[in-house]
Amino acid sequence: MTALRLGLVHTPVMPFGPDRKIDFELFGKLIDFHQREGADALALPMHAAESVSLPEAEKHAVVAFAVEHAEVPVIAHVSEAGSALAAALARQAESAGAAAIVATTPYYWTPPPAMVLEHFAIISGAVKIPLFVHNAPDDMAGQKVTAELMIKLIGRLTNFAGLVDQSLDWQFLIELITLAKKVRPDFQLLAGNELLVSAAAIGATGLFAPLAGVAPKLIRALFDAASAGKLVEARAAQEQLAALRQVMKPGGAPQLKAALRHMGRDCGDPRPPLLALDAVAAKALADALGRMPALAAERRGW
Amino acid sequence: MQNKFRGVMQSPVTPLKDDYSLDLPTFERLLDFHVRTGAPAISWPHHKAESLNLTIAERKLFAEAAVKTVNGRVPVTIHVSALAVEDTFALAAHAQKIGADGILAITPYFWNPAREAIYDYFVRLATSIDLPVISYNSPSYLAGVEITGELMARLIERLPNFVGVKEASFNSEKFLEISRAALALRPDFAMLTGVEYLLPSVPLGGVGSYSAAGSICPNLCNATFEACMAGDWERARDLQYKLSWLWLLFRDQYPSSLKGGMVTMGRNVGPTRPPLPTATQERQAYIRGQLEELGILDSEPYGW
């Protein structure tokens, strides 16, 4: 079905000006940075880009701008609470020229499995480009997809191309890949964050990298080693990224923006209701990042 | 020095007679079977051995039988976790007395102990004996109670006999958090997974696992470990998929499905104590079908 094979996918943040409006000039600069620093594709606006704080028109504008500006394929994030709303975003993304769409389980609601299936079917049915499902239980109050649901989805949707996994759950991943390969041999498994080695061992061939704005070189090295089957050799980079993630994870999107500022790539503060890190927290973060030898090789500034 | 706890270590089930009483002769046969089919170590009674459904006296009796039967051929560790931690201490002291090679202990059951209480618990336990202690981390079964990387580091710094962890989160982030903390301080610390999830753990410093499937397919267990240690990831992937498929089969109605599967393999170990179900004829037939489909009946030993 789809020829689009995703490799290392960067997920840029969303730059806001002091007026909290999207700073498109800076966004263009950020896209250039990600491309220069090794992105095979871009996915946006993901949760790292505060997607949930963007009204529909802005989401569309962001995708349209990125498609226009970027040389690499753009995957549009279309998650919504309502299935029709997500489908509308998907249609807009396709008409703007996105290479694929990615969607989580619905926001807020906890529908029964049959309706989660319906939700994805409505989204993917709105477009011809490939759909990637994003399994992100930490972001979704524990809501996660099951292997059974994914297999049903494969049976129903010709454009369901793969899963981006943030559950990091070995039991689920092996069950899924074992079943999926039987019914759709080109089904793609992608790690949803930089904890890649185990996922790659299991069979993941791609990576969505939310920390790519901070440590793109390290992430590229990890991805290249893992893709070449050098899993043991990838361990050092993996441990460094695990350490970085441990520092970054508790603070979410505000922490990510503070880290970018520390790296000399200021993309502004997050939008409310998220709060920017206060001076004490920003200093603690800067100190923690300063102690990481792995970041010494990363570019400062643009 | 290489830690002696590595490879796919076998944790036998507890054979029971039809009246649910302990079946000692079958237990001895099972221990022998595991050693003969390549178990690098034996550990009993894990949850699949219905540990929490046995009396403390029964646990002592079979622990002694395990040490005697294995007779030094491979190391024997005793799982000492009990609902009341005073029983845990008694089982640990007993393990030392009978000549076991180590103990295994999970974070305390039921209570939601503070991190400091978990620290105190392991310090008290490990200083009460001279044996190596392997900790057991299983957050999903214990309502999120877990050993964090920071706690693991403190325990390793405090306890020279704290030599490994059975890490049963099956989660990259949790495994890495513990392995990074532990291996930096104690390079021969044994990072072991709960059941045979070798493929995702070995590249991160994992050196083995406890086994769910070893009473069914010891050859597959050992082959998967060898492929992982050789870095033959293509082969490891094929073997791991098969092994994990079996785990999903056994995880459903654990451990009665495992005992049910053993009947197919000619190694009947009797029923499972309530409240756990005993595999019905239908369930056994289903498991048999799955084992046939996976080719287990042709590639693994039948009978004792």
Folded structure, characterized:
The complex is a heterodimer of chains A (302) and B (304). Chain A is of the alpha/beta class. Chain A has eleven helices and eight strands. Chain A starts with 7 loop residues before the first strand and ends in a 12-residue tail after the last helix. The mean pLDDT of chain A is 96. By secondary structure, chain B is of the alpha/beta class. Chain B contains twelve helices and eight strands. In chain B, strands 1-8-7-6-5-4-3-2 form an eight-stranded parallel β-sheet. In chain B, helix 1 crosses helix 2 (56-70), helix 2 (56-70) packs parallel to helix 3 and helix 8 (218-229) packs antiparallel against helix 9. The model of chain B has no long low-confidence stretch (mean pLDDT 95). Classes of the chains: A alpha/beta (302), B alpha/beta (304). The A-B interface holds A 167-171, 173-175, 177-178, 195, 197-199, 201-203, 229, 231-232, 234-235, 238-239, 242-243, 245-246 and B 149, 170-173, 175-177, 180, 197, 199-205, 231, 233, 236-237, 240-241, 244-245, 247-248.
What is this structure, in a nutshell?
Chain A contains 11 helices and 8 strands. Chain A has helices spanning 24-36, 56-69, 83-96, 113-125, 147-156, 170-183, 197-202, 216-227, 235-248, 252-262, 279-290, and strands at 8-10, 41-44, 74-77, 100-103, 131-135, 160-165, 188-191, 206-209. An 8-stranded parallel β-barrel of chain A has the order 1-2-3-4-5-6-7-8, surrounded by 6 helices.
Q: Report the sheet-strand fraction of chain B.
A: 5-15%
Order of helices and strands of chain A: EHEHEHEHEHEHEHEHHHH
Quaternary structure: heterodimer
Residue-averaged pLDDT of chain A, rounded? 96
Within the largest sheet of chain A, what's the order of strands? 1-2-3-4-5-6-7-8
Determine the strand fraction of chain A and express it as a percent band.
Answer: 5-15%
Based on CA atoms alone, the radius of gyration of chain A comes out at: 18 Å
**Sheet/helix structural class of chain A:** alpha/beta
What class, by secondary structure content of chain B?
A: alpha/beta
Number of strands of chain B: 8
Instruction: Enumerate the spans of chain A where pLDDT stays under 50 for 5 or more consecutive residues.
Output: none
Largest sheet of chain A, if any?
Answer: 8 strands, parallel, barrel
Largest sheet of chain B: 8 strands, parallel
The total count of strands of chain A amounts to 8
Classify the helix fraction of chain B into a percent range.
Answer: 40-55%
- Mean pLDDT across every amino acid position of chain B: 95
Low-confidence stretches of chain B: none
Sheet with most strands: strand arrangement of chain B: 1-8-7-6-5-4-3-2
| Percentage of residues in helical conformation of chain A | 40-55%
Over all CA atoms, what is the radius of gyration of chain B? 18 Å
Number of helices of chain A: 11
